[in-house]
Fold:
Amino acid sequence: MKQDKQDRRSQRTRQLVSSAMMELLSEKRYEAITVQDILDRAGIGRTTFYSHYYDKEDVHAAMMEQMLDGMSQQLSERHTGHGIVPSLELFQHIQQNHKHFQALAGGPTAERLWETMQTALGRTIEQSLIATRKDKKVPSIPLTVVSSYLAGAFLNLLKWWLKSGMPYTPEEMDEIFRQLALPGVWATLQSQSK
Structure:
Protein backbone atom coordinates (compact mmCIF):
# COMPACT_ATOMS: atom_id res chain seq x y z
CA MET A 1 0.00 0.00 0.00
CA LYS A 2 1.31 3.44 -0.81
CA GLN A 3 2.13 6.03 1.81
CA ASP A 4 -0.71 6.24 4.27
CA LYS A 5 -2.36 9.63 3.95
CA GLN A 6 -4.87 10.28 6.70
CA ASP A 7 -6.76 13.30 5.43
CA ARG A 8 -10.50 12.98 4.86
CA ARG A 9 -10.24 12.82 1.07
CA SER A 10 -7.75 9.97 1.24
CA GLN A 11 -9.89 8.10 3.73
CA ARG A 12 -12.95 8.63 1.54
CA THR A 13 -11.07 7.41 -1.54
CA ARG A 14 -9.86 4.31 0.29
CA GLN A 15 -13.40 3.61 1.48
CA LEU A 16 -14.79 4.00 -2.06
CA VAL A 17 -12.14 1.68 -3.49
CA SER A 18 -12.60 -0.86 -0.72
CA SER A 19 -16.40 -0.87 -1.15
CA ALA A 20 -16.06 -1.16 -4.92
CA MET A 21 -13.65 -4.08 -4.61
CA MET A 22 -15.93 -5.81 -2.09
CA GLU A 23 -18.93 -5.48 -4.40
CA LEU A 24 -16.94 -6.74 -7.37
CA LEU A 25 -15.61 -9.70 -5.39
CA SER A 26 -19.17 -10.71 -4.57
CA GLU A 27 -20.05 -10.62 -8.28
CA LYS A 28 -17.07 -12.23 -9.99
CA ARG A 29 -13.78 -13.99 -9.47
CA TYR A 30 -10.81 -11.94 -8.32
CA GLU A 31 -8.86 -12.77 -11.49
CA ALA A 32 -11.62 -11.28 -13.65
CA ILE A 33 -11.60 -7.92 -11.86
CA THR A 34 -9.60 -5.15 -13.48
CA VAL A 35 -8.43 -1.81 -12.13
CA GLN A 36 -10.85 -0.21 -14.59
CA ASP A 37 -13.70 -2.17 -12.99
CA ILE A 38 -12.69 -0.77 -9.61
CA LEU A 39 -12.43 2.78 -10.98
CA ASP A 40 -15.86 2.57 -12.63
CA ARG A 41 -17.52 1.13 -9.52
CA ALA A 42 -15.82 3.58 -7.13
CA GLY A 43 -16.42 6.55 -9.39
CA ILE A 44 -12.85 7.77 -9.19
CA GLY A 45 -10.15 8.54 -11.73
CA ARG A 46 -7.06 6.52 -12.54
CA THR A 47 -4.72 9.17 -11.09
CA THR A 48 -6.60 9.18 -7.80
CA PHE A 49 -6.47 5.38 -7.64
CA TYR A 50 -2.74 5.21 -8.34
CA SER A 51 -1.98 7.91 -5.78
CA HIS A 52 -3.32 5.49 -3.14
CA TYR A 53 -2.62 1.99 -4.50
CA TYR A 54 -0.14 0.27 -6.77
CA ASP A 55 -2.62 -2.17 -8.30
CA LYS A 56 -5.62 -4.35 -7.48
CA GLU A 57 -3.41 -6.71 -5.45
CA ASP A 58 -2.51 -3.76 -3.24
CA VAL A 59 -6.21 -3.02 -2.73
CA HIS A 60 -6.90 -6.65 -1.82
CA ALA A 61 -3.93 -6.75 0.56
CA ALA A 62 -5.06 -3.53 2.28
CA MET A 63 -8.55 -4.93 2.74
CA MET A 64 -7.15 -8.16 4.16
CA GLU A 65 -4.90 -6.24 6.54
CA GLN A 66 -7.84 -4.16 7.74
CA MET A 67 -9.92 -7.27 8.40
CA LEU A 68 -7.08 -8.99 10.26
CA ASP A 69 -6.47 -5.85 12.32
CA GLY A 70 -10.14 -5.90 13.33
CA MET A 71 -9.88 -9.52 14.39
CA SER A 72 -6.64 -8.90 16.29
CA GLN A 73 -8.22 -5.97 18.09
CA GLN A 74 -11.19 -8.10 19.07
CA LEU A 75 -8.86 -10.82 20.36
CA SER A 76 -6.82 -8.34 22.40
CA GLU A 77 -9.98 -6.85 23.96
CA ARG A 78 -11.44 -10.17 25.03
CA HIS A 79 -11.82 -10.79 28.72
CA THR A 80 -9.53 -13.32 30.29
CA GLY A 81 -11.25 -16.30 31.80
CA HIS A 82 -13.45 -16.98 28.75
CA GLY A 83 -11.45 -20.05 27.80
CA ILE A 84 -8.24 -20.68 25.93
CA VAL A 85 -9.74 -20.32 22.47
CA PRO A 86 -11.78 -17.19 21.73
CA SER A 87 -14.07 -19.25 19.52
CA LEU A 88 -17.34 -17.52 20.36
CA GLU A 89 -15.86 -14.06 19.74
CA LEU A 90 -14.42 -15.19 16.44
CA PHE A 91 -17.59 -16.88 15.22
CA GLN A 92 -19.52 -13.72 16.12
CA HIS A 93 -16.97 -11.49 14.37
CA ILE A 94 -17.05 -13.59 11.22
CA GLN A 95 -20.85 -13.69 11.21
CA GLN A 96 -21.02 -9.90 11.52
CA ASN A 97 -18.52 -9.48 8.69
CA HIS A 98 -19.20 -12.62 6.65
CA LYS A 99 -19.62 -10.88 3.29
CA HIS A 100 -16.30 -9.13 3.65
CA PHE A 101 -14.65 -12.26 4.96
CA GLN A 102 -15.96 -14.51 2.18
CA ALA A 103 -14.90 -12.00 -0.45
CA LEU A 104 -11.41 -11.82 0.98
CA ALA A 105 -11.14 -15.55 1.60
CA GLY A 106 -11.56 -16.16 -2.12
CA GLY A 107 -8.94 -15.17 -4.61
CA PRO A 108 -5.19 -15.45 -4.76
CA THR A 109 -4.46 -14.27 -1.23
CA ALA A 110 -6.86 -16.65 0.51
CA GLU A 111 -4.07 -18.99 1.57
CA ARG A 112 -2.15 -16.09 3.07
CA LEU A 113 -5.26 -14.99 4.96
CA TRP A 114 -5.77 -18.44 6.52
CA GLU A 115 -2.04 -18.74 7.36
CA THR A 116 -2.02 -15.32 9.01
CA MET A 117 -5.14 -16.20 10.99
CA GLN A 118 -3.59 -19.53 12.02
CA THR A 119 -0.46 -17.77 13.29
CA ALA A 120 -2.32 -15.01 15.16
CA LEU A 121 -4.82 -17.39 16.71
CA GLY A 122 -2.08 -19.87 17.63
CA ARG A 123 -0.21 -17.14 19.51
CA THR A 124 -3.36 -16.06 21.36
CA ILE A 125 -4.12 -19.66 22.35
CA GLU A 126 -0.56 -20.33 23.48
CA GLN A 127 -0.61 -17.23 25.70
CA SER A 128 -3.91 -18.39 27.19
CA LEU A 129 -2.52 -21.88 27.81
CA ILE A 130 0.52 -20.45 29.58
CA ALA A 131 -1.70 -18.22 31.72
CA THR A 132 -3.98 -21.12 32.73
CA ARG A 133 -1.14 -23.43 33.76
CA LYS A 134 -1.02 -23.11 37.54
CA ASP A 135 1.54 -25.84 37.92
CA LYS A 136 4.86 -25.57 36.19
CA LYS A 137 4.96 -29.22 35.19
CA VAL A 138 5.96 -29.86 31.62
CA PRO A 139 3.02 -31.20 29.58
CA SER A 140 3.53 -34.31 27.48
CA ILE A 141 3.02 -32.24 24.32
CA PRO A 142 4.60 -28.76 23.99
CA LEU A 143 2.12 -25.88 24.31
CA THR A 144 3.18 -24.58 20.88
CA VAL A 145 2.00 -27.83 19.32
CA VAL A 146 -1.27 -27.80 21.28
CA SER A 147 -2.00 -24.20 20.30
CA SER A 148 -1.26 -24.90 16.63
CA TYR A 149 -3.58 -27.91 16.73
CA LEU A 150 -6.42 -25.92 18.32
CA ALA A 151 -6.01 -23.01 15.91
CA GLY A 152 -6.08 -25.40 12.94
CA ALA A 153 -9.10 -27.28 14.28
CA PHE A 154 -10.95 -24.02 14.85
CA LEU A 155 -10.14 -22.63 11.39
CA ASN A 156 -11.19 -25.85 9.65
CA LEU A 157 -14.50 -25.76 11.49
CA LEU A 158 -14.86 -22.09 10.58
CA LYS A 159 -14.25 -22.89 6.88
CA TRP A 160 -16.90 -25.61 7.01
CA TRP A 161 -19.36 -23.21 8.68
CA LEU A 162 -18.85 -20.56 6.00
CA LYS A 163 -19.03 -23.03 3.08
CA SER A 164 -22.22 -24.52 4.54
CA GLY A 165 -23.92 -21.14 4.70
CA MET A 166 -23.57 -20.72 8.47
CA PRO A 167 -26.38 -23.16 9.40
CA TYR A 168 -25.72 -22.75 13.14
CA THR A 169 -25.49 -19.68 15.36
CA PRO A 170 -22.09 -18.55 16.65
CA GLU A 171 -23.11 -19.81 20.09
CA GLU A 172 -23.93 -23.28 18.70
CA MET A 173 -20.66 -23.35 16.76
CA ASP A 174 -18.75 -22.37 19.88
CA GLU A 175 -20.34 -25.25 21.77
CA ILE A 176 -19.62 -27.70 18.92
CA PHE A 177 -15.98 -26.62 18.79
CA ARG A 178 -15.58 -26.90 22.54
CA GLN A 179 -17.11 -30.40 22.62
CA LEU A 180 -14.97 -31.64 19.74
CA ALA A 181 -11.61 -30.10 20.52
CA LEU A 182 -11.17 -29.28 24.18
CA PRO A 183 -11.68 -32.53 26.14
CA GLY A 184 -8.69 -34.21 24.49
CA VAL A 185 -6.55 -31.12 24.92
CA TRP A 186 -7.36 -30.84 28.61
CA ALA A 187 -6.60 -34.55 29.11
CA THR A 188 -3.29 -34.14 27.32
CA LEU A 189 -2.33 -31.10 29.38
CA GLN A 190 -3.07 -33.01 32.61
CA SER A 191 -0.49 -35.66 31.74
CA GLN A 192 3.17 -34.76 32.20
CA SER A 193 6.12 -35.77 30.08
CA LYS A 194 8.26 -38.45 31.56
User: Anything to note?
Assistant: The CA atoms of residues 22 and 103 lie 6 Å apart.
